[in-house]
Amino acid sequence: MTATDSRPAAKTYTPLGLFDTNRLLDDDERDIAATVRAFVDAKLKPNVEGWFESATLPRELAKEFGNLGVLGMHLDGYGCAGVNAVSYGLACMELEAGDSGFRSFVSVQGSLSMFSIYRYGSEEQKQEWLPRLAAGDAIGCFGLTEPDFGSNPAGMRTRARRDGGDWVLNGTKMWITNGNLADVATVWAQTDDGIRGFLVPTDTPGFTANEIHRKLSLRASVTSELVLDNVRLPASAQLPEAVGLGAPLSCLNEARFGIVFGSLGAARDSLETAIAYAGAREVFDKPLTAYQLTQEKLANMTLELGKGLLLAIHLGRIKDAEGVRPEQVSLGKLNNVRESLAIARECRTLLGGSGITLEYSPLRHANNLESVLTYEGTSEMHLLAIGKALTGQAAFR
Ligand code: TGC
Ligand code: FAD
């Protein structure tokens, strides 16, 4: 034993404990994060490996998320909690520390399905759907992307035409989260007057959801193709306030904001897993944590995680104060998903061969984050959104 070894052990911190980010939160925000974390630890983490392996997300989780109060938690009334944006973000972070699939479910339900109804629906539509969606008694999905139009939804081919007092919808939506679980789909379609939104009960004749199998990412999440074959809807199915592409894009801002926080949960869980593993793993007669190369990796990952959370809280405070601009959300979504993916991959290296099994979370998180990098606007779309904000020139086309 060396003289250095006989000194009392130095005080250690968790990565975010080192940043002391809790200091930036109020009591309610800390309580919400702790409650969701306890739920994830008790109910989700013990099962996630099995769900990921069998590519399932049990429908019953909707009710549990409803009881937890996280479905549409940032909306007011209609059974929703009306918490602030930072609290919603922290809930997303804790859910994604379990798996991106859990955060995806909650994002799509609360920020895409419920928000589209809350912001653009009639009072009757809100009364019909929001309380059930908030409780997890009903499940929603959001169909914007099509097989040939993902990054460029303006080109969508799904069409809604008037037939007397009805609407008739035809088209195909692709990569739709919760598609096979949903009771109601928010579907975006071209009309003679431009893009409009419709609420489609999924038991309407002509509506089919086909689950997408053999995914290597987001396996604990249901992803589907939606086919609309002469789906006839009453006039009251149209979202009356949604006019043009700006309507679905405004819903995306809500979900993207959740991802700004959420992705950091996957990174935090990866990093905590890697630190624990490396502390117990002996290589060349010393713990892996005792090597400078390891400490450099841990220090750099901790910096990116902490900087990401500072940015997320900053954007949340702006959102709560006066509303956050889409290009500011792009800053957070691009940075935090990109860095979280890099962290999850780097953590996997510290686990060596053990890191390629489902027993440890980092590679599962990294695989999931490949989807998160792509959905809700690819990293390239967010680079271009930031470029447009800096130069005034749109370089998308
Ligand atoms: P552009 O001319 O720029 O805009 C059309 C209108 O929309 C307005 N707008 C926005 N409004 C609110 N929020 C935003 N983020 C907005 N971006 C644009 C804009 O001001 C304009 O309004 P107006 O009144 O002048 O008409 O439209 P563009 O066709 O040039 O497209 C711009 C671009 C590329 C940024 C947009 O198409 C885009 O964001 N593409 C990415 C598509 C995307 O993110 N799809 C996500 C699908 S949903 C999903 O992935 C769910 S995953 C969920 C999960 O499991 O968690
Ligand atoms: P494309 O748009 O074909 O892009 C392919 C590549 O080209 C990307 O790298 C892209 O960045 C790049 N590219 C495109 N345009 C440009 C350009 N102008 N300049 C440079 N590069 C460019 N959609 C929904 O509507 N609802 C959902 O619930 C939903 N859930 C999803 C769940 C999962 C698991 C996944 C994977 C996707 C989901 N999506 C959903 C779809 C998602 O939003 C799209 O996959 C995404 O917008 C990208 O579209 P795309 O796959 O068609 O790729």
From TrEMBL:
Residues 141-231 form the Acyl-CoA oxidase/dehydrogenase middle domain. InterPro entries: Acyl-CoA_Oxase/DH_mid-dom (IPR006091), Acyl-CoA_Oxase/DH_mid-dom_sf (IPR046373), AcylCo_DH-like_C (IPR036250), AcylCo_DH/oxidase_C (IPR009075), AcylCoA_DH/ox_N (IPR013786), AcylCoA_DH/ox_N_sf (IPR037069), AcylCoA_DH/oxidase_NM_dom_sf (IPR009100), Glutaryl-CoA_DH_mitochondrial (IPR052033). It catalyses: a 2,3-saturated acyl-CoA + A = a 2,3-dehydroacyl-CoA + AH2. GO terms for biological process: fatty acid beta-oxidation using acyl-CoA dehydrogenase; fatty-acyl-CoA biosynthetic process. Its cofactor is FAD. Residues 27-137 form the Acyl-CoA dehydrogenase/oxidase N-terminal domain. It comes from the Bacteria. Residues 244-390 form the Acyl-CoA dehydrogenase/oxidase C-terminal domain. It holds the Pfam family Acyl-CoA_dh_M. Transmembrane segments: none annotated. Keywords: FAD, Flavoprotein, Oxidoreductase, Transit peptide. GO terms for molecular function: fatty-acyl-CoA binding; flavin adenine dinucleotide binding; glutaryl-CoA dehydrogenase activity. Belongs to the acyl-CoA dehydrogenase family. This is Acyl-CoA dehydrogenase. It comes from Mycolicibacterium brumae.
